[in-house]
Structures
1.
Amino acid sequence: MMELLTAEQLDKFTVQVAGLEHPRELIIDLLRSVQDNHGWVPDEGVALVAKILGLTPLEVEEVATFYDKIFRQPVGRYPIHICDSICCWSRGGDALATHLREHLGIDFGETTADGLFTLLPSCCLGACGRAPAIMVGQNTYGPLTTDDADRIVDALRQEAQG
Ligand code: FES
């Protein structure tokens, strides 16, 4: 298993926790760090975060499952969140989602056989002015045509090969 947290991260978070009145403030930061290192957050990651913060695993789990950008199951190297909220939906988001499902040959919640892409429906990505929008990692893209989406996918494929 890949490392959940580096020694440096462990030190940094331990110092931060000691100075906080409410250590739970760090739940998302810790979960994100585990996810960045490991690709997703396994049960051991939830247990580790709970231990660092002095919380129960259930308290961490409640936060982890609330946020759709925290993955509690393995995902592809590039999880693609497709916005299905009203602005994007009314500006072609549905067709964009259908196109990406066909282009990648997977449905929502599935990962391509090469392990690169996972498609995930998402509520508003905060980019309504750029509808229809998708998010890959920390990057938000929009407004997108189906050709734009294909170019993004192709660029990520090339990046993975590079
Ligand atoms: S509705 Fe799609 S980004 Fe807000």
2.
Amino acid sequence: MAEPVSDLQPLRHSLHQSPELSGQEHHTAATIAAVLSTYGPDELLTGIAGHGVMAIFQGHQPGPHILLRCELDALPIRETNRFDYCSVHPGVAHKCGHDGHMTILLEVARRLQQQPLVAGRVQLLFQPAEETGLGAVAVCRDEQYLQHQPEHVFALHNMPGYPLGSVIVRPGTMCCASRGVIIRLSGKTAHAGQPETGIAPTAAVISLLQLLPLLAQPFADQELAMITVVGARLGDKTFGNTPGQAEIYLTLRSEHDATLATLEEQVRLRTAAVCAEQSLQHEFSYEDYFPATVNHPAGVEQVRAAAAQCQAELIPMPAPMRWSEDFGYYTQQVSGALFGLGAGEDHADLHNPDYDFPDQLINIGADLFLRIVQQLQAPH
Ligand SMILES: [Zn+2]
Ligand SMILES: [Zn+2]
């Protein structure tokens, strides 16, 4: 049954038009707060962990405190779409559908105004800086959040490659843990005519680029585990010198947090061994850490029951998603689940330059969230 597209579709398009990068979501947050205030929340909090916004809807009777989360940030990607609501900020675009996720929560707010909550509390959190992995961890330490800690947390992410409106979920790891690793190698530059007087990291780079990805293989039988080379840099375009410096960039990825730590250790040991052979110095730094997003079985049951009630197709999920999500910080502390919402089998993929959020999902996502809220308020 085709669902009518939400009245908030124009708002989704205007959010799409004005994307902001992680941690810089100033105007997006102001827009969200202004729209939310028209839906009469009992409390409206701003400035959570930077630009985060939270609307609180309170029932008159006691009941569960449920947090629904969406994300404020866009990506440093140049949009190639040609429609009339294209990004007006060069090189920045909503290519993960966070404009759509925000609109789903605004639709939830709109319906909570029309049909006020009887029991418990619903907290709609518009979280900053998801794409860099810095947002959720900062929210979990924020004083305003800590004063309103929920008992249940839920979020959804649209998923291209699955039937439109289908629900994809699993207990345990839903999205992988990952971490960016930067390896800096230092030797000694020399005249390009006398390379033997320097210490070039060239051979070490070649060897490490081949060896390091293989370190994940022993783990890959039991779980999803990968080491991916994402970049490398050796010397400069100066034809008089041999290189004295190099950098290697890796992304480590695994189903379990403990495996990620082991992969890191293996990378450190192997790099140290290669550098010792070549008389090179080395150092490591780390960026973009995401813990595994681990779904609680009870949260998954709520999602599955809501999908059945909303007649959404439930797609089994034998393995976790390879991508990472910072929602795992919430489920480390509070029971809940993140679920996928199918964006269409032939839909452009997340982070592709031609991606756009399917507006049909605004009502479907709001239906599912509100169904979860109802189930938790009136358990059978
Ligand atoms: Zn993304
Ligand atoms: Zn995303």
